[in-house]
Amino acid sequence: EVQKLNQQLEEKNGEIQQMINQPPYEKEREILRLQQTLAEREKAQATSDVLCRSLTDETHQLQRKLASTAEMCQHLAKCLEEKQRKEKGNSDDQIPTERSNQVFLQLLLDNETSLQALICNLQEENRILKQKVAHV
User: Fold this and answer.
1) Range of the domain at 30
2) What is the pTM of this model?
3) Cβ neighbours of residue 104 under 8 Å, at least 6 residues apart?
4) Who contacts 65 (Cβ-Cβ below 8 Å, separation ≥6)?
5) Contact between residue 15 and residue 9 where contact means Cβ atoms under 8 Å apart
6) SS3 category, 1
7) How far is the C-alpha of 62 from the C-alpha of 119, rounded, in Å?
8) Under 8 Å CB-to-CB from 63, ≥6 apart: which residues?
9) 95 exposed, middle or buried (CB, 10 Å; 0-12, 13-18, 19+)?
10) Which residue from 62, 76, 75 is spatially nearest to 112, judged by alpha carbons?
11) Strands (E), the chain
12) Cβ atoms 74, 82 nearer than 8 A
């Protein structure tokens, strides 16, 4: 194990000596290459940061929209209940109301499900972008 580590150390020292012994123009070329690589990584990081912020903002907007939609649906449900209480019609009149309640509830569930799916998709995309940022 020690011999293996010593060999690796000698190899690294050899690489360092090669770098030192390189003509100045090759050193400058290597420095420029490293600077370009760094600039590319910084640019990729900045792009990823912008995308992550954008996705975060969009997620918050969707969450607010979902909350307001849920609040509006609750308000409509209360209004519908009050309307049903006030109505003193026969059972024939109540059957369409029950059907409209079922349709309304189904629409509410569909809307909430689609918003939840969109939020999940955005969170997954956000997670992937964060992984890419970490990789870069």
Assistant:
1) 1-89+97-134
2) 0.42
3) 76, 77, 80
4) 115
5) no
6) coil
7) 7
8) 119
9) exposed
10) 62
11) none
12) no
Into how many domains does the chain fold? 1
Backbone region of residue 89 per phi and psi (left: phi > 0; alpha: psi in -120 to 50; beta: other values): beta
Q: Residue 90: phi, psi to the nearest 5? A: -80, 180
- Rounded CA-CA distance 88/77 in Å is 19
Do 62 and 122 contact (CB within 8 A), yes or no? yes
Which ranges of the chain have pLDDT less than 70?
A: 88-101, 108, 111, 136
- Helix and strand numbers (H, E) in the chain are 3, 0
Residue in this structure with the two tokens 């006030």, named with its chain if needed: 86
Closest CA to 60 of 115, 108, 110: 115
- DSSP code for 126: H
Q: Give the C-alpha separation, 85 to 132, whole Å.
A: 57
What's the CA gap between 63 and 94, in Å, rounded? Answer: 35
Among 65, 59, 74, 78, smallest CA distance to 108 is for 74
The 10s digit of each residue's pLDDT in 57-70 is 999 999 999 888 88
Q: What pLDDT is stored for residue 10 in this prediction?
A: 95
